[in-house]
Design brief:
- The complex is a heterodimer of chains A (425) and B (371).
- With 425 residues, chain A is α/β, with parallel strands linked by helices.
- Chain A is globular and about 70 Å long.
- Chain A is built from 14 helices and 14 strands.
- In chain A, helix 2 packs across helix 11, helix 2 crosses helix 12 and helix 3 runs parallel beside helix 4.
- Chain B has a domain of 208 residues.
- Chain B has 17 helices and 2 strands.
- Classes of the chains: A alpha/beta (425), B mainly alpha (371).
- Chains A and B meet through helix 1, strand 2, helix 3 and helix 4 of A and helix 4, helix 5, helix 8, helix 10 and helix 15 of B.
């Protein structure tokens, strides 16, 4: 008798049915724990009276690996809090970082690893819209908080089916509203040309801008998009220049931000007011263009720039520089991604201090009921506020204008909630 | 059973599995060798009986054992591990297709990830637009990939070596911007989020276990299909093309026909794998299918072992587990460790992990015989 492939398959199928009939998975040893006392039945996985375990997923390798600096700032903050403050409310923070290489399937794998194997209390930051989209169903099924995700897409706040996921940074729509508000006040009949990246980031911001100027005298007279894979955006810039617009809204990522600024500077015949979005407003983007070429460019910010001399004596900034040197000596504290990590980690600290129950449910509710929480690393006047119908912690930004060799903040902090009402889908 | 021994168990089983392993050198002869006369009467002692089992049958026993282990695993492992092994099988099916093309037909493809993406997106669009049942998407995804493979197989008829590699690389490169363009259908750069197949109530399985068994079924089907394909005259023709095109043509093998078909079949397996991928991940976006995916796949199959049946499985294990292992070693530079590991494997086992397993088996046999 020769075992045929079909025979093998039949044997296997029988085996399969037999094992399946024996019942499902033995649930023993999954390590899930629940609370007693005042918060009965709530999940306490990953948190004890002396420790709290968090997991983050970042692209440490691959095309977006520049963002891999963010966890260094977070680590520095948690190391400092653990060593000098006794942790958050007496709980030492353990922060596990995993690499997804900006690949959604890898992000799913790492999220499962963190939740099921590392038994983390919460996913503290997943980076990038694709990776976060790929993991948020899972996080919500497992009822694991996915806190302060590092992407500005507006869906983290407008969506109602995923209460366990929440963003942190101002979403792109809010940022667009800030620019729209500025134009309404300063140039009420502006003709705007828009350059945007053809992806979720570019479309979210551009769409938000279109809605925000709707019904005003501001007209969008030209729009050009580009792909991340394009070598240059000069053709797009030439087309925009032909429109004769008097405002250029530059919605790009750093590499293309530099190119657009340079292209605008080269074209002496067209001198629009150049607004560059926050993503491309770092000094490292402006420097290659030449500071003399970017005078008067406008952008918006929400956290303090470590390169800005006006924060030199700011207590939080001094603490940041000192602790970065002490706990992550190999990292350059002047890189804004580190500052971003520090700011988001201290935001988590504040949120965790506010929980009523030290449980996953408690954290979920705490980050959705923040009330004007002040964070040292955010600009004065920018606070975190959320509510039952408001899933966006930060929705205020301040405008800044490039002058000399640095950004100068001007005007009041613009609270887009007040000016435009809550952001809904 | 601890997780680690399970993993090793899977490796060991995979290593001893391949019925096709010895055939790679002399394809035509070995493939035709009929199984030698069956074992004599029953009731003898087990050991000599086992020794008399033909190599071919030993292969099948190993396959059956591997399948039994595969069916047993999801009931023993935590969901996270079950998910990982599901992904191993997804990659294994894709690598099986690549193996057909690279290992058996001797062509090269740097664009295999594109066909994988086509399968994944076909499935996603069908689920998103027409709410087809999940199982119905599998044949359609495979067919679409097959057709595209046939179309892109045409350059393979005229091009060789480096030139063919470049053309296939171009497929992988232009796919991502293409997916972003047709936003109304593909969801653009936001991708599409889809429901995963829900386990029917009668099975009593959890979602991850159900996905595992669905993928296992796809993998078993794919391996049986590839096995049948390579044992037929098609397989012999492909091997002839690989070994010497001129000689193959003289023997009456129609080169353009078989080269194009090899591309189409390889794409079909990739498409089926892509379909299973969409079931398992429930989300597709252009960023999931960048050029590096194609390169990683090629690395996976070369490391797993070209031209053998255990190669795709070992390659799948490699693609799945080695990046995370290298991150555990040093989380500052996972890429460096991954690259170094590839170099090490290529030095130690120039014929891939499958070849290494075969060599180890042979040398232990020799040692045992001498004693």
């Amino acid at each position: 008798m020769r075992l045929s492939p079909i025979g093998c398959a039949a044997v296997t199928a029988t085996l399969l049915l037999a094992t399946a009939a024996c019942g499902g998975r033995e649930e023993a040893g999954t390590g899930a724990t629940t609370a007693a006392g005042q918060c009965p039945g709530q999940q306490t996985t990953g948190i004890t009276d002396t420790s709290i375990k968090l997991g983050g997923i970042y692209p440490l390798s691959g095309p977006a690996s520049a963002y891999g600096d963010i966890p260094k700032g977070i680590k520095a903050y948690f190391d400092y809090v653990n060593a000098e403050k006794g942790g958050i409310g007496g709980r030492k923070v353990e922060f596990v970082v995993r690499d997804d290489g900006y690949q959604p399937p890898k992000a799913v794998e790492e999220a499962r690893r963190l939740v099921e194997q590392e038994q983390v209390f919460a996913l503290f930051q997943t980076l990038g819209t694709p990776s976060t989209t790929a993991t948020w169903d899972y996080a919500n099924q497992r009822k694991v908080p996915q806190i302060f995700v590092a992407t500005g897409a507006s869906k983290w706040g407008t969506d109602t089916a995923h209460p366990w996921t929440i963003g942190w940074q101002p979403n792109y729509v809010s940022e667009a509203r800030v620019y729209a508000q500025y134009l309404k006040q300063e140039r009420p009949d502006a003709k705007v040309a828009v350059l945007y990246q053809n992806d979720d980031f570019g479309k979210d911001l551009f769409g938000g801008f279109q809605r925000a100027v709707d019904g005003s005298q501001i007209k969008i007279v030209a729009e050009q998009s580009y792909e991340v894979t394009d070598p240059s955006i000069d053709p797009q810039m030439r087309n925009l220049a032909e429109s004769g617009a008097d405002v250029l809204l530059n919605i790009t990522t750093p590499k293309f931000g530099s190119q657009a600024l340079a292209s605008d500077a080269r074209n002496g015949a067209w001198n629009p007011l150049h607004i560059v979005n926050n993503v491309s407003s770092s000094i490292t983007v402006l420097k290659p263009v030449g500071f003399e070429n970017v005078q008067g460019v406008v952008s918006a910010a929400y956290y303090k720039d470590p390169n800005d001399p006006q924060w030199k004596d700011d207590p939080e900034m001094k603490l940041y520089f000192e602790k970065m040197k002490q706990y992550v000596p190999e990292a350059d504290p002047a890189v804004p991604y580190h500052t971003f990590g520090w700011a988001v980690a201290s935001s988590f600290h504040k949120a965790m201090e506010a929980v009523k129950c030290p449980t996953r449910e408690g954290l979920r509710d705490a980050v959705r009921s923040l009330n004007n929480v002040e964070i040292g690393m955010l600009l004065p006047g920018v606070t975190m506020t959320t509510g039952a119908d408001d899933g966006f912690p930060i929705e205020s930004m301040q405008l800044m204008r490039f002058k000399g060799e640095r950004w100068e903040l001007f005007g009041e902090v613009i609270d887009t909630r007040k000016e435009f009402g809550p952001l809904t889908n | 059973m601890s997780e680690r021994t399970n993993e090793r168990g899977a490796f060991a089983n995979a290593g001893s599995e391949p019925p096709g392993e010895d055939r790679t050198r002399e394809p035509a002869k070995a493939a035709d060798t009929p199984p030698r006369a069956g074992t004599p009467s029953r009731g003898r002692v087990l050991a000599p009986a086992l020794a008399r089992v033909t190599p071919g049958r030993r292969g099948w026993i190993a396959v059956a054992a591997l399948l039994a282990v595969a069916c047993y695993l999801p009931f023993q492992l935590v969901p996270f591990r079950v998910f990982q092994f599901t992904m191993v099988m997804v990659y294994a099916v894709a690598l099986l297709g690549l193996n057909l093309l690279v290992g058996h037909a001797g062509q090269i493809s740097l664009g295999h990830g594109a066909f994988f993406a086509v399968g994944a997106y076909t499935t996603a669009i069908m689920l998103d637009r027409w709410d087809l049942p999940h199982l119905a998407t599998l044949p359609i995804a495979a067919a679409v990939a097959f057709a595209l493979g046939l179309a892109f197989g045409l350059p393979a008829v005229r091009l060789r070596g480096l030139y063919l590699a470049l053309v296939t690389l171009a497929i992988a490169i232009f796919l991502v911007p293409l997916l972003k363009r047709f936003e109304s259908v593909t969801g653009g750069s936001m991708g599409l989020t889809l429901a995963k197949p829900a386990p029917p109530a009668w099975t009593g399985l959890a979602e991850d276990q159900w996905l595992y068994f669905l993928t296992l079924a796809v993998a078993v089907l794919a391996f049986l299909l590839a096995y049948g394909l390579l044992r037929s005259r098609v397989g012999r023709a492909l091997h002839a093309v690989r070994d010497n095109e001129a000689a193959a043509e003289v023997m009456g093998v129609r080169l353009p026909f078989y080269k194009t078909l090899a591309f189409a079949w390889s794409a079909m397996f990739a498409g089926a794998a892509g379909c299973a991928y969409t079931w398992v991940i429930g989300f597709v976006s252009p960023d999931s299918f960048v050029v590096t995916l194609s390169i990683t796949m090629l690395a996976g199959i070369v490391i797993g072992g070209l031209g053998s049946f255990s190669g795709p499985l070992l390659g799948g294990l490699f693609v799945m587990f080695v990046p995370s292992i290298s991150q555990d070693v040093n989380d500052a530079a996972p890429g460096v460790i991954f690259g170094l590991l590839i170099i090490v494997v290529m030095y130690v086992a120039p014929t891939g992990l499958a070849g290494l397993a075969g060599r180890v088996t042979r040398s232990t046999k020799n040692i045992l015989r001498k004693e």
